[in-house]
User: Fold this.
Amino acid sequence: MRKYGLVTFAGILLAATGCSRPEAPSELSWHFAGGAALKAQTNAPVLAESLSLPQSAAVVGPLSQRLAEAWWHVGTRGRPATPADLGSGIALIPDLLVQESRGAIRTRPQGGLEFAVAIRGLGTQTPAWEAAWTAWVRAMHAARGGGDAAPATLRQADWLIAVSDATFLPPAAAWTLLQEVPGDPDAVARFDVRYPGRLGLQASMTCRDGAARWAGKATLPKPLPAALPAWEIPRGIREPLVMFTAVRAVPSLIENLPWLQSWTGKVVPSELFVWGQPGRPQWGHTYFAARIEDPGAAVSDIQRRLAPLFATGGDTRFRGEVQHDPKAARLILNGNLPVVPTFEAQSDGGRGYLTFGFMPARNATNELAPEMLVQMNRSNLVYYDWEFTGAAAHHWHLGNQLVDLFEGRQAVVDSPATQWLLAAAPRMGESVTEALVIGPGELSLARKSPMGLSGFELAALAHWIDPKPPMRHRPSAAATNRPAARPKP
Assistant:
């Protein structure tokens, strides 16, 4: 399965060893007003302007390719695909990005997923869309060995309803189902996703008062603690900041989200903090701190996991070396890069923290803003994120390149989604996201932001979309284990 180069508390590299493509939900429903409607709305101007940038047109092709690959992966249970297999799916997606649409995924009683999609306003393109849908569904059914497919379509006023199996989900019944997505009916986007027995998430996004606003609810299979542990914010987090994230009750959250366990390893923090300070390069001023009883043991665990990837003999994944100082409880990744990733065990007020950063934090004396502390001083707050989204996107975009650099490849900055992100980021202002415990196993979710996505999510999306040319995947000579090449100015 494809690996991604992001991380939780353990730094950018660790996720590359354990984060796999997520499992498909058993049920998913959505309603999307369409990209044309988002660009025409006036209530979240940064969102409309960013989607209208000249650089956005070049993103449609690679985004369609990546979405078709993901759709194929879900629909065929991970079967390999050829370019011919993906062709019909790629043809469908540009219309789904632009036009108003509704959709659903449902699980058959005997296993396997089926799809229903409704799209509005195709006009004269309707026959071509019907033909592409039939070819796409038949290709997926053939790949998964599911017997004869029964794709079907139904025209309903200016809507086209398409289903992957009319026997399981007749078009007329599908149209009724597709109109039942929960959430604000005036929202520009809303969805309901369920992993029965594990996780449910409902959310909707509206545009008003100059911002994109998400509101939603998460349902967890296991309740969080009735009384959340007190925040233990490291005193080393100082202003000025461009981003700040805090999470508590991490063990309980991970217990509900078991796919995160491969990221955390054997040592799970009770609280996690991520922050960024202004300065260049932005990635050099991003820091992590995880509240852990024995951070020295956590450093040793990270060394055990990373050392084989930097081994000096043979064809190893990363160039450079792991420098572990057990006495100082410090781990340095030396790859001849502009920055030096460092894990370290630290003590703050008698509490232990595993920290990660690229260079010493700025010598600042200002404490966290009182307004932020007031927001965090709520007994049921489990997650809080504040940022200048444009600056945060730069921090995470540069961090995403670490894996490429450690693999001995030049960073790529001229790919379509990266070019769009760099053009849109300066327009983005403040964003706030929070999650509150509202009942046993229930969280309320809220966000106010310029784009609807955080800087982390925008950078991760751009990294996922961008095509990866051969130069990006061409490793250095395996026998020498040379440090990664520096990026060109």
Q: What stands out?
A: Residues 1-22, 473-489 have pLDDT under 50 and may be disordered. The first strand starts at residue 27 and ends at 32. Residues 126-144 form the longest helix (19 residues).
